């Protein structure tokens, strides 16, 4: 299997994130990608390819132009805003306020206001390298899609930061640019009439769902922790089924706290039947490994062997498949878990 990977994904180095009112080391780290890279390289059968630096054309079809301009220029503006008199290194950027229901819907033009306008949460530090790493990730995802459109059975985009929480104009959940959406749009632009996205991260992929919510050419299926108890709380319920031309092309399978393979496997069966019925010509898998029993963010009880079983079930769909890496924070186990999944 081909692996699209660039060292540029290591450029995003968040320092810390908030937990229970204090700061802890950021969970979404460059080490995640390094350990996956090293595990796959050691296995010997993966073919590594570095993506070109050309910005994929699908990016502008997935994200709003004002959002892309903001992300590209945010760091220098934050640095200029914070830097004077700070002395040491510039701290990571976070929003100050959110455009909530009791406020007017305006787009501010100073950096603190813009961060607040475009952020979805307080858990996603914007760093000096966030744009570079995110751009390398969507480029890898698009190029994996191009490989698959060209006849390869499957390709893996070794991406970070992850992408599935990023909406057309919002960052959050550690995500800035939506890798799965860019892969899906690239498959469509390369000739697929219909594409399915299967999101098997522990968290609901709110960004991917919202990007394709009104489109009938992309089926988005999510298996995830029920938003009644888990992040992102505001999206991912079974009653969300798409709108307009997209009615019926969104499927949410929220699962209870503590779900193990028996419960997960039933949902995966339902997801695979829906994908087969939709009649897609290609598949994107948003694969998060934070369903793992040892993951610090997860309540699910999925084992390494279960990841191999998931891979087998997905391969059974017999569709040209792009796999993008989403979450997975049991960092020491991540390389072996990804290897098991891809082997399946
Ligand atoms: C891509 C991805 O997996 N993003 C996840 C972002 C989750 N951010 C919210 C974390 C909430 C932490 N809850 C603590 C539970 C610890 N037992
Ligand atoms: Zn996740």
From TrEMBL:
An example Gene Ontology biological process: epigenetic regulation of gene expression
UniProt entry tagged with the keyword Hydrolase: yes
Cofactor(s), names only, from the UniProt record: Zn(2+)
InterPro entries linked to this entry: HDACs (IPR000286), His_deacetylse_dom (IPR023801), His_deacetylse_dom_sf (IPR037138), Ureohydrolase_dom_sf (IPR023696)
A molecular function GO annotation: histone deacetylase activity
Domain called Histone deacetylase: residue spans: 28-340
Keyword Zinc carried by entry: yes
Record-linked Pfam families: Hist_deacetyl
Keyword terms: Hydrolase, Metal-binding, Zinc
Membrane-spanning segments: none
Highest rank taxon of the organism: Bacteria
PANTHER family named among the record's database cross-references: HISTONE DEACETYLASE 8, HISTONE DEACETYLASE HDAC1-RELATED
Family indicated by similarity: Belongs to the histone deacetylase family.
Protein name, per record: Histone deacetylase family protein
Source species of the chain: Marinicauda pacifica
């Amino acid at each position: 299997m081909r692996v699209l990977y660039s060292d540029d994904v290591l450029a995003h180095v968040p320092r810390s994130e908030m937990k229970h009112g204090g700061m802890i080391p950021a969970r979404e780290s460059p080490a995640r990608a390094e350990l996956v890279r090293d595990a796959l390289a050691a296995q010997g059968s993966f073919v590594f390819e570095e993506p070109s630096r050309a910005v994929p054309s699908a990016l502008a079809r997935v994200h709003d132009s004002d959002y892309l301009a903001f992300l590209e220029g945010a760091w220098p503006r934050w640095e200029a805003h914070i830097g004077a008199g700070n002395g040491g290194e510039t701290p990571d950027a976070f929003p100050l306020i959110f455009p909530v229901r009791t406020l007017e819907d305006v787009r501010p033009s100073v950096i603190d206001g813009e961060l607040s306008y475009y952020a979805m949460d307080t858990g996603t530090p914007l760093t000096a390298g966030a744009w570079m790493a995110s751009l390398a990730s969507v480029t890898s995802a698009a190029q994996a899609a191009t490989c698959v459109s060209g006849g390869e059975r499957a390709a893996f985009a070794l991406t970070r930061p992850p992408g599935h929480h990023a909406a057309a104009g919002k960052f959050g959940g550690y995500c800035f640019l939506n890798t799965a959406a860019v892969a899906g749009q690239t498959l469509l632009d390369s000739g697929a009439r219909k594409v399915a996205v299967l999101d098997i991260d522990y968290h609901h992929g709110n960004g991917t769902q919202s990007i394709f919510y009104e489109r009938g050419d992309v089926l988005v299926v999510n298996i995830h922790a029920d938003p009644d108890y888990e992040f992102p709380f505001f999206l991912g319920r079974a009653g969300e089924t798409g709108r307009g031309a997209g009615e019926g092309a969104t499927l949410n399978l929220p699962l209870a706290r503590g779900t193990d393979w028996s419960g997960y496997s039933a949902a995966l069966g339902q997801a695979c039947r829906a994908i087969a019925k939709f009649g897609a010509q290609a598949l994107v898998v948003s694969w998060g490994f934070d369903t793992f029993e040892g993951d610090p963010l997860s309540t699910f009880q999925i084992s390494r062997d279960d990841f191999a079983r998931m891979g087998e079930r997905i391969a059974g769909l017999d569709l040209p498949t792009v796999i993008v890496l989403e979450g997975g924070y049991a960092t020491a186990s991540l390389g072996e878990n990804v290897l098991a999944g891809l082997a399946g």
